[in-house]
Each structure stands twice: as C-alpha cells, then as structure tokens.
Amino acid sequence: MGDVKLAFIVQKPQYKGETSRLAITHAISYQTVEILLEDGDTVTPKLCFIGEGVLGLEGKQNAMELYGITSTESHMKNTLLVDLDVLICKEDLAKYGISESAMPDAEDMGADKKIQIVPFAEIQKAMEEAKHVLFF
Amino acid sequence: MGTLTIGCFPGLVGNMTYDFALKLADAAVTKGHKVNIWFSGNATGSVKAHQKHLKDYSTGEKYLKALIEKGVEICTCEACTVARGIMKTEGIEGVQWNAMHWYLAKIHASDRVLQIGGE
C-alpha cells in the first residue's frame, strides 16, 4: 500500500481541551507505526494549526515548573526532533497579533527541522494531498 | 466492503457524541464493513468493566461487548487510560490496549476514517 499521507488539523487552543495536545502526540507516533505495518508501508502526517489552534504555541513556556506537566512548547520541539512537518497558518497568527518569531524551534536539542509558517493556501494543499484529514 | 476506522475522543457521559460513534460502528459492521475503533482522551474512561447502567447516563460496556462480538476491533490508548486510574486488569475483556501508533496503523489500511473529536 506504500505511503499514506495524513493531515492533522488543529483548530482548538492547547489550553481549551485535551484533544489539541493529542493531535501532536498522535502525529509524533508516526515514528513508531512501522512496527505494525508491512515492509515498505509508511504513514506521513502533516501537523497543521489553524484558527484558534495557533494560540498557546509560543516559546518560553513554564508548564513543568508551575504545574509539573510538559508544555506545549516541549511537544512542539519533539515534533521537530522527529522530522515532522509542522505548518502554522500565517494569517491566523497575524489575526491574533502573534509574532512569527515567538514560535519555538528545537535548535538547542539538535533538530534541523523548523516550524513552517505558511499561508492558509499551503495548509489547504496539505489537506488536498492527504488521503485522510483528521480535525482536532 | 470497506474498512472504516473511527477515532473516538469524547467522554462517555455528558454528551451524545460517544453514543453516536458506537451506533455508527454498529451500523457499519452490520452492513458488512470492517470497523476499527480507537479510544483516546476522555473516551478511554469507557473501557472500565462493571459499569452500572443507570438510565440517566450513557453506557459503554454492553455496547462495546456487542461490537467486539461482531468483530469490531476496539483499542484504547494505554497512556490516556492509566492516566485516568484505570488499569488493564480492570478493563472490559476484548478491548485492546496499545499506543497511538495502533490508530495510525489502522488508518493506513482504511478506506475511510472518522475522527470524532472530544471536549
């Protein structure tokens, strides 16, 4: 069956429910899915944040210090460490007045991958190219 | 016939979305389709055995058992489930426990996927 492309579309803020976080962790699990697939089969997700889903992604979070839980920032860094394509809607960041430079990277952890801030048209393209689109 | 995978994230009690997911799964498997259900988030609370079916509340156990009898594969996210204090030994017999890659693997082999979001 080969590669199956997926688009994970996060529309809700990280702090308004569990499922936005689960979108990230489910996407990251593409790294280990091959143990359950036939040789040559792969799953390639793109993790996309749109609308209110762009809220709460900024760097310099202190969730571990204050609440004893991992931050959304650390999860975002993990996506980059496992070479996941992460797309954030440029228009929606601008709508909420969030600076593009506030988005985290994982350079300090050795990741080459960067978060991609893209026009919505790019996210639309990712949805069109995907076999399945999952809304969170 | 096709393969349908349902990602079910809402809690058992407090909305009808969970009930809908199970009804839909039953309709699909009754028509002859292969059906997989993945529980994550609050939906994982529904895999605990010995649920008392009070008529004021939705119930999962008897419907899950019936779906398993019909050949539906049901799996709960182990991390989400133990985080809610439910251990595997307390779970409904026949429900699988695995990690999120189980869901992605089932999606890989599916003709259709329904991601039913939670709270």
Description of the molecule:
- The complex is a heterodimer of chains A (136) and B (119).
- Chain A has 136 residues and is an alpha/beta fold.
- Chain A has a single domain (3-135), classed as 3-Layer(aba) Sandwich (Hypothetical Protein Ychn, Chain: A).
- Chain A has helices at residues 19-28, 63-67, 72-81, 90-95, 120-129, and strands at residues 3-10, 42-49, 85-89, 116-118, 132-135.
- Chain A has a 5-stranded parallel sheet, with helices on both faces.
- In chain A, helix 4 (90-95) links the parallel strand 3 and strand 4.
- In chain A, helix 1 runs parallel beside helix 3.
- Chain A starts with a strand and ends with a strand.
- Chain B has 119 residues and is an alpha/beta fold.
- Chain B has a single domain, classed as DsrEFH-like (Hypothetical Protein Ychn, Chain: A, 3-Layer(aba) Sandwich), CATH 3.40.1260.
- Chain B is built from 4 helices and 5 strands; from the N terminus they run E-H-E-H-E-H-E-H-E.
- A 5-stranded parallel sheet of chain B has the order 4-3-2-1-5, with helices on both faces.
- Chain B is globular and about 35 Å long.
- The chains are: A alpha/beta (136), B alpha/beta (119).
Give me a quick take on this structure:
Chain A has 136 residues and is α/β, with parallel strands linked by helices. Helices cover 30% and strands 21% of the residues of chain A.
The CATH superfamily label of chain B reads DsrEFH-like
Q: Which stretches of chain A are low in confidence, meaning pLDDT under 50 for 5 or more residues running?
A: none
In CATH's first tier, which class of chain A applies?
Alpha Beta
Radius of gyration of chain A: 15 Å
The largest β sheet of chain B comes out as: 5 strands, parallel
The helix fraction of chain B, in percent, is 25-40%
CATH fold topology of chain A: Hypothetical Protein Ychn, Chain: A
Query: What percentage of the residues of chain A does DSSP assign to strands (E)?
Result: 15-25%
- The residue fraction in helices of chain A comes out at 25-40%
